[in-house]
Amino acid sequence: METRKKRDILSIATVPLTMTLANSMLIPVLPAMQQALKISSLQASWIITAYATVAILFIPLAGYLSDRYGRKAVILPSLLLVCVAGAAAGIVAAIGSRNAYGLILGARLLQGLGSAGCFPVVLPLVGDLFKRDQDVSQGLGLIETANTFGKVVSPILGSALAIWSWYAPFFAIPAFGLISFLLVLVFVKTPHGSDDNSSKRVGLGAFVRSVLALIKAEGKWLYCIFAIGGIAMFVIFGSLFYLSETLEERGMKSIYKGLVLAIPLGGLCLVAYLSGKWIGKNKARMKWTSLIGFAIATAALLALGLMKRDGTWWIAALLALSSSGIGAALPSMDALLTGGIDKDQRGTVTSLYSSMRFIGVAAGPPASALLMDVSGGALFLVAAGTALLATLLNLFAIRPER
Fold this sequence. Notes:
It is a multi-pass membrane protein. The protein is an all-alpha fold.
């Protein structure tokens, strides 16, 4: 990989890192938010879900706009919106408005709108930068590593900031967002000719028809990769919500809670990085790496569903195994999708994939809150069932040789 492009990749990687911090950093603070805002566990989960829900709706539009007007033209204004909305949420919380919960939800919706134009555009931008499949795979592995590294440090950082105040994480989001904005603005150079594509020369209607035709022609494997991405995020965020609530009930607070939450996410980050380097440009290796990863995740979640969950470290260890399995799969899914789509439609199609991932992010916490009212076993059996579905989809529907 060229030295200059390594600088580009590192700058681009700050975008998913910032988007992850903007959401995951709040997970360990949710119990404190419940007390401060006098809301239920389910209402608190909507602070996470609101961010993801609006992103789901606008990600496809952001993908189209990035294909038509350029990646940076979409990413930069979106980063600024994330910063403004984060500051607004922090100010509302600090003032202690009577309708603080509703106003924070509104700010989170705006923040989700900004996130719709950030991480989903990153994947096609990496594909634009490189010509060799191996470089694309390594670049996407680094992007997933940045994304998962954000998940690792976010509970620690969120817990540390919460020592000062439960709303401090809201103010941290604009700080990280501005750093990412400056790095992308200064260091990321659009490849020559990457903006000269057919999506600039056709209208929205014609472009949508061409994308629908592509999905119809390639539908089977595309639908499966979309579903697998959604399942991965559903399992990760649902498990994190359960672990955060469980640690709070067992009296673990402050930065110690963040460190325990970081254990499964550390496995996710490390294995995603190693997986991105391992798969290279070998599409068969991508399929089997993902398949084995989800099989391991299924087994770990099933064990949590069937066995007693008395030991905190036992729960954290099995969740680390589950997350590591998912970490093995994510770079493979990114590379299969990015490598299988032409540049002209890459932004739109990868944005649909990102929408499905955000559906998983949005559904995970409230589903966990509802299932926890039944039992922890029910939660993990449902999670194991969804991971098994991803394993089967990978086995039967993804055929790299075709």
